[in-house]
Amino acid sequence: MASALIALGGNVGDVRDTFARAIPMICGMAQASLEGRSSDYATPPWGQEDQARFVNACIEIDTPLNPLTLLEVLHKVERRFGRDRTCETRWGPRTLDLDLLAFEDAEIDRSDLQLPHPRLFERAFVLVPLMEIAPDRLIAGRTARTALAQLSTAGIERLPPPSPN
């Protein structure tokens, strides 16, 4: 089994419900166990700022899959929730965005997969939830804790736990 860190985001529809349904789907399709799940955070849009705020979270899973196969699973889950990467605006609105942040200590530089995620340490909206589940995990020689200390967290708000149904 290998440990993988995954970021979840979205700003279209009931994103928190999407997360609640997508996480078990990821675990099932990846034959994975859920090892950690952060709180949900309301965050300002990044890249394209004239859109609704996002909800972001992170999970840690243990999976027998390799990184490329796990990435394929993540893309399948995104499609099941209505995301079509071929006709969307970069950094634009989306129902579900799943990013593979790190996979064990793998370093991969391919056109279809870069690990660790190339913009991980630039994004407070990823590092804040990652701090909850893996604050001191070394990723490319850095930790979420040390990387986040260099960034502004303005506008990032921890959301209360969802109400039980």
Explain what this protein looks like in three dimensions.
The chain has 165 residues and is α+β, with helices and mostly antiparallel strands. The chain contains four helices and eight strands; from the N terminus they run βαβββαβββααβ. Strands 1, 2, 3, 4, 5 and 8 form a six-stranded antiparallel β-sheet that branches. Strands 6-7 form a two-stranded antiparallel ribbon. Strand 6 and strand 7 (114-115) form a beta hairpin. The longest helix has 15 residues, at 15-29. It is globular, with a radius of gyration of 15 Å.
Q: What are its keywords?
A:
two-stranded antiparallel sheet, single chain, 4 helices, 165 residues, alpha+beta, globular
User: What's the shape?
Assistant: globular
Uncertain stretches of 5 or more adjacent residues: none
**End-to-end gap:** 33 Å
Proportion in helices: 25-40%
Which range does the strand content fall in?
15-25%
Care to count the β-strands? 8
Radius of gyration: 15 Å
Number of helices: 4
What are the secondary-structure elements, in order, as H or E? EHEEEHEEEHHE
Counting helices, strands and paired strands, the structural category is alpha+beta
Main β-sheet: number of strands, strand sense, barrel status? 6 strands, antiparallel
Roughly what is the average pLDDT, rounded to an integer?
93
Short description:
With 165 residues, the chain is of the alpha+beta class. 27% of the residues lie in helices and 24% in strands.
